[in-house]
Amino acid sequence: MAAEAIGWWGVPLGILAGTLRGSAPFLFVSLGECLTEKSGKINLGLEGTLLAGAMSAYAISYLTGLPWLGVIVAGLSGMVLGAIHGWLCQQPRVNDVAVGIAMIIFGSGIAFFLGKPFIQPVAPPLPSWQFGNWSNFAALKSALQVCPLFVFGVILAPLMQWFFRSTRWGLLIRAVGDSPDAAKAMGLSIFKVRMLSIIAGSFLAGIGGAYLSLYYPGSWTERISSGQGLMAVALVIFARWNPIQCLYASLLFGGAQAIGPTLQAVGVDSYYYLFNASPYILTLLIMIITCSPKRSLSGVPGALGSDN
Fold first, then answer.
1. What does residue 146 show for φ and ψ, rounded to 5 degrees?
2. Number of domains composing the chain
3. Is the pLDDT of residue 280 over 50?
4. N or C end: fewer C-beta atoms under 10 angstroms in the chain?
5. Does some domain include residue 237?
6. Does the residue 294 lie in any domain?
């Protein structure tokens, strides 16, 4: 039986492996959304960007045999969708949420249409670093296989924190997000700052999509994102618009995502679908807690959700 073959000791190893492998898409999308929201805009369309990035990365990797080129193209596809979103959401009397929903439909529709020829073919995946070679346990070796993109995301989180706190561009983005009128009085172009922030954030979301299709789970299907782009928006709220906390929250979501498959691997079939829904339940709980009128959100950009 599976329970006898793997043993209950394999549960923490399975969750560790799922955390290291499954948290990267949450991390890249949440960091991208954090950057966008710091400028005072919301981009719900990152779900469509995630799918477009996954499809374009897989297609380029299959056609050229160069998975890292696929990662770059995925980021560029995210930038294109980000530019469209950035221009639309800054037009007069246009709502950010409505534009985001439209971009989900547009981005996913483009990905599904152009990606149909690549559902069956197998593209070269991204490599992994073996951090468990010191051990003789195969399960531990497997759990400690880490994609370089995940390591890049872990490094990016503190760099983004430093960027917001200690660089001129970071302070300009925060100024635009907190008080657009004051930023305009300083001579800043609100449109340009927000456009660049949205494009850069969408680039990161596209990279997250490349991770999905080229590493974990490592294939292209129309259901590959499973709503992770939308969950990342709740994750940013949970992290209080702090990149370091986005990293911690992404690890939490990645671990929650691994609970269902890990328990099934040790023979726990009861409540399988409930365990698989852990990330969605976590998202719902976060939204309920953060939407309470008795709680104030610390770190929220002052112009977020306004018409300015």
1. -125, 135
2. 1
3. yes
4. N
5. no
6. no
